[in-house]
Amino acid sequence: MSVGELAKSPSAPSASELKATRRKNRVGYLLLLPGAIFMLLFFVLPVFSLLATSLYTKVPGGEIGQYQPALEFGNYVEALSSYWQTLLRSFGFALIATISALLIGYPMAYLVAVRLRGRKLLQGMLLVLVIAPFFASFILRTQAWKQILSDDGPVVAVFHALHILPPDGRLTATAFAVVAGLTYNFLPFMMLPIYANLDRLDTRLLEASDDLYSSGFTTFRKVTVPLSMPGILAGTLLTFIPASGDYVNAALLGNNQTTTMIGQVIDSRFFRIVDYPGASALSFVLMVAILILVLIYIRRFGTDELV
């Protein structure tokens, strides 16, 4: 078919339709422009600045905190060789906290979104209880866990009574306290995406599974969980990523020895040791490691809605 015949074809868009399409595209690009500028100024440029700083070298004979541009890749070697155990510990704590938040948050989301569907007042009250901790400072919420897990607190008393802890055992300044704080602080980030996903779940699919004589567990495993995977994926990412770089929980609930997380090290090297290249190298390593882990996770468990 020639160009002239194509232009005369009923299915070919008219000149006015093409003009309208171009206008819509321009409007779309203009709507994206503020967000693109924001990301450029406050994400892309800082990342390149961080990368450049991580390659700086100390000024010969200079004072503390004086560095000059260079290509000192040894900063990365030193950062990895000195703090690889801390990096692994951070990922381990974040992974445990993410799994714990999933085990706690999924039943909560299922109860509110599916079991209580139609009972708007009760749903709203429970959602408010989940969101309510955000009205208090992150540091205050973490500090409260020191009182909850203190040696004379109720949790330790119950654990002693059940012989879970030895008589001289304690929970404060332990890995357990750090993971508990991470789980608590990031639990809403896990629960809310799952709730939003389950809230759109068509319950007729669950009824159809029951009609086909599936057990409740089989229905949950083969129908509910697969349909809620976008929420699970989003929740785990929103929990694992900030938990990996968190330093508040480890600083307030840990012992600064066996519970040190990589965020504490970065904070210390930036503001106390004034080692900007070393802190930048650690920050960049952390960012790249998280990116690699997230990409592997998405490719393994991702869904069509997210990849």
Write a structural description.
This protein has 307 residues and is an all-alpha fold. It has one domain: Orthogonal Bundle (MetI-like fold), CATH 1.10.3720. It contains 13 helices and two strands. The protein has helices at 3-8, 15-53, 74-115, 120-131, 138-148, 154-161, 175-198, 203-211, 216-227, 229-244, 248-253, 262-271, 276-301, and strands at 57-58, 67-68. It has a two-stranded antiparallel sheet with strand order 1-2. Strand 1 and strand 2 (67-68) form a beta hairpin. Helix 3 (74-115) crosses helix 7 (175-198) and helix 7 (175-198) packs antiparallel against helix 10 (229-244). The radius of gyration is 26 Å and the shape is flat. The protein starts with a helix and ends in a 6-residue tail after the last helix.
Q: Taking all residues together, what is the mean pLDDT?
A: 87
Instruction: Indicate the percent of residues in helices.
Output: over 70%
**How large, in whole angstroms, is the Cα Rg?**
26 Å
Strand arrangement within the widest β-sheet reads 1-2
Name the beta content range.
under 5%
The CATH class turns out to be Mainly Alpha
Terminal CA distance reads: 38 Å
Can you identify the CATH superfamily? MetI-like
How many strand units?
Answer: 2
Q: How many helices does DSSP assign?
A: 13
State the major sheet.
2 strands, antiparallel
